[in-house]
Design brief:
The protein is of the alpha/beta class. It has a single domain, classed as Rossmann fold, CATH 3.40.50.620. Helix content is 52%, strand content 10%. Helix 1 crosses helix 8 and helix 3 crosses helix 6.
Length: 231
């Protein structure tokens, strides 16, 4: 049986992704990444209990908490330390909230991949959904996060990535006998993101920020985290 870790926020996307993964005979460990600005993980724990009731043999661990705040902050150092004039010259169309979200999601991947490697897991499951509209959910980052996983011999699975309808998502959970109402943990750092459709210029600046400021640090961080990550 293939073994996986699941990025589990407690929201409907990660809930449905976990169900799909478990129905594909994956054994999962659910992980919750806390950047230090998360209001509550009660919903994530509730989802884990519901999954354990239905898929008891395949959910092999209670919710694992990973603290990602310091890693996230390190990915923001350029943005936090340079004068705004210099930042605007390098990344003229990158908005602060999207940069923070990008740094946070990158830190989540670094910790999740390190956890997967340390615990002998071969798959990483993410409930990312393109329709959400955050930059971290769009194709530019989907490709890059997938490459990061491949480079670390981890297979990235995103079961609801192309799911465009909230109604379909709700129906799929309902068909499985699960509640479709959620109270997701709230991040107070960069939300609400007010996710209008990002322009090509905004996407280009954010991609450049990831490629220049974050990506070079990811592999060293994964190696460091893998050597001493505890849970």
């Amino acid at each position: 049986m293939d073994k996986a870790v699941v990025l589990l926020s407690g929201g409907r996307d990660s809930f449905l992704s976990s169900c799909i993964a478990l129905e594909s005979y994956l054994e999962i460990v659910p992980i919750f990444c806390n950047n230090g600005h998360i209001a509550s993980a009660k919903r994530a724990n509730f989802v884990v209990r519901e999954l354990q009731k239905r898929f008891s043999k395949n959910v092999v661990h209670d919710l694992v908490y990973l603290s990602t705040g310091m890693t996230m902050q390190s990915y923001l150092l350029t943005y936090l330390s340079l004068p705004m004039l210099d930042i605007s010259k390098k990344y003229p169309f990158a908005t602060p909230n999207q940069i923070q979200c990008l740094a946070c999601k990158s830190a989540m991947y670094a910790h999740a991949i390190a956890f997967a490697k340390r615990s002998g897991r071969t798959h990483l499951i993410d409930g990312v959904r393109k329709q959400q509209g955050f930059f971290v959910d769009l194709d530019e980052m989907h490709v890059r996060f997938n490459k990061l996983c491949v480079d670390n011999q981890i297979e990235l699975l995103t079961p609801v990535y192309e799911l465009s309808s909230d109604w379909v998502r709700k129906r799929e959970l309902c068909d499985r006998g699960f509640t479709t109402k959620v109270i997701e943990p709230q991040c107070f750092l960069a939300c609400p993101l007010n996710c209008k459709i990002l322009t090509d210029q905004e996407r280009e600046s954010l991609t450049k920020f990831y490629d220049e400021e974050i990506q070079p640090n990811l592999q060293p961080d994964i190696k460091r985290l893998e050597s001493h990550l505890t849970w």
